[in-house]
Write a structure and sequence with these properties.
about 15% strand, two-stranded antiparallel sheet, about 60% helix, 3-stranded antiparallel sheet, 2 domains
Length: about 170
């Protein structure tokens, strides 16, 4: 007699078959979750967009504040420079003009005495100047150049760059 009854499948075979059918049953359940996730994405992106827009607005406001501070600092520096220039100009106008005197230079220079000696004769610078001043009868002396020539026994002079003469010593 034949047994038409089916032999039971091994346990491993049943679980594999069940596993194949089980995911099919779960897929319709997962579909609503995917739809919910897709629906949530636009909400998340709007939040991100709002945060980005707020950050952009905040950055623009900070840039505007920084630009205003920079302009204010530049204006203050310009005003300070103008004030300093005006003060320097006023100080220059008030400063007394210093006159340099010839006496100050003579005090700094050493005293010089010049003597010329030749064949037993001697003449000093002061004696030569006094001899020329005594001989001169023209206009006032502004400049005086002396040339001593011992072999002639004379002092030649040039007064004010043009008048010439000779004095014996």
């Amino acid at each position: 007699m034949l047994n038409n009854t089916k032999k039971p499948e091994p346990l491993a075979a049943q679980t594999a078959a069940e596993q194949k059918t089980a995911p099919k049953a779960e897929k319709p359940v997962e579909a609503p979750k995917a739809a919910e996730a897709k629906a949530e994405k636009p909400v998340a992106s709007t939040k991100t967009e709002k945060a980005a827009a707020a950050a952009k607005a905040k950055a623009e406001k900070a840039a505007a504040v920084a630009a205003a501070k920079a302009e204010k600092a530049a204006a203050a520096a310009k005003a300070k420079a103008e004030k300093a220039a005006a003060a320097a100009k006023a100080k220059a106008e008030k400063a007394p003009v210093r006159k340099r005197t010839v006496g100050a230079r003579k005090a700094a220079a050493p005293e010089v005495k010049l003597y010329v000696q030749y064949q037993g004769k001697q003449i000093s610078q002061e004696e030569a100047v006094e001899a020329v001043k005594a001989a001169w009868t023209g206009e006032p002396i502004k400049s005086l150049e002396l040339y001593v020539k011992p072999e002639d026994g004379a002092v030649y002079y040039v007064i004010n760059g043009s008048e010439t003469g000779k004095v014996n010593f």
